[in-house]
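Tutorial handout. Part one gives the primary structure; part two gives the three-dimensional structure as tokens.
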Amino acid sequence: MKAGLKFLVLAIGLCGLPQPSSASAMPGDSALAGTLAKGVRTPLSLGGVSLARYQPWQPAASYRIGTVSTAYGYVEVERAEASSAAQAGAGIDPIQTAAIIPGVFGSVALSMRNFPVAARWAPVYRAIVDCSAGSTCERKNAAFVAIVDAAKGKGFSDRLAFVNTSINRLIAYRKDSAVYGKLDYWAKPSEILDRRAGDCEDFAILKMTALLDAGIPAQSMSLVVLQDRKRKFFHAVLSVSTASGAFILDSLGNVVRRDSDLPDYVPLYSFSMDRAWIHGSKTGGAEMADIKGGVATIAPGEGLEPDMVSAIVAPTRMGPR
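Part two.
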């Protein structure tokens, strides 16, 4: 019987990091990148898991949105550079900055190394990159092709909203145990399109695939595995980083919302491009989940099993919220 792994969700105290805007509107035409604190060093271990070697905290690769009616120039330049590098480097975008905005769901993200569940993500991300315009993957489903083509002609806000709603309607929600006969299975885009069904991370994977093909850079998107404290289950969403904060595409609703509008979502870990991240708190408060068997037992979309999480301790907040 494996000993329970104390998984630290919110335990890193930071002062001076700017808080994301609490407004619920999508970013304007000329949102500017916020100034982020640097110099935070990664601890040697967190939750019993070895972390990456010491390195300064990096700013997010967030958008600089141009006019709403046209593609934002900064994004297109990033995408062109990534495309060129991808051809020379096995289809994986280069890592130049941190891929996820510090502060998603009020947390700080720490780069991980040898993360237990990273092996699930690596082949999925490669498949996302490969599932581009004209590929065999994309041709598997005419409806998916139509979604991507329509999204390309929309402004940033409408693009996110359209893809979120369209993918929510394109595939049916079914647990991995019903579709693949496994408690947790991370499907590739082609597998999801073949079956027209999947659980929460499958929705997020397909949305990332569609948005990447529609011009959103990979380094600004992340798949976030989280705890929904209100509904009491594990969940997964797609986060899109911008200078105005992170925007969440969720299989549970068609409205794209700011991360700051979802206080019941507690991020556990996330994947962006070919990196994994674990999340901690800015506030100095602590929140721990006693996860029996470790993080590998987390199965987003399968519900919160009693033997998976035995205790959730509310964080202690310091100062005004």
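Part three, for discussion. The chain has a mean pLDDT of 68. The chain has one domain: 4-16+42-312.
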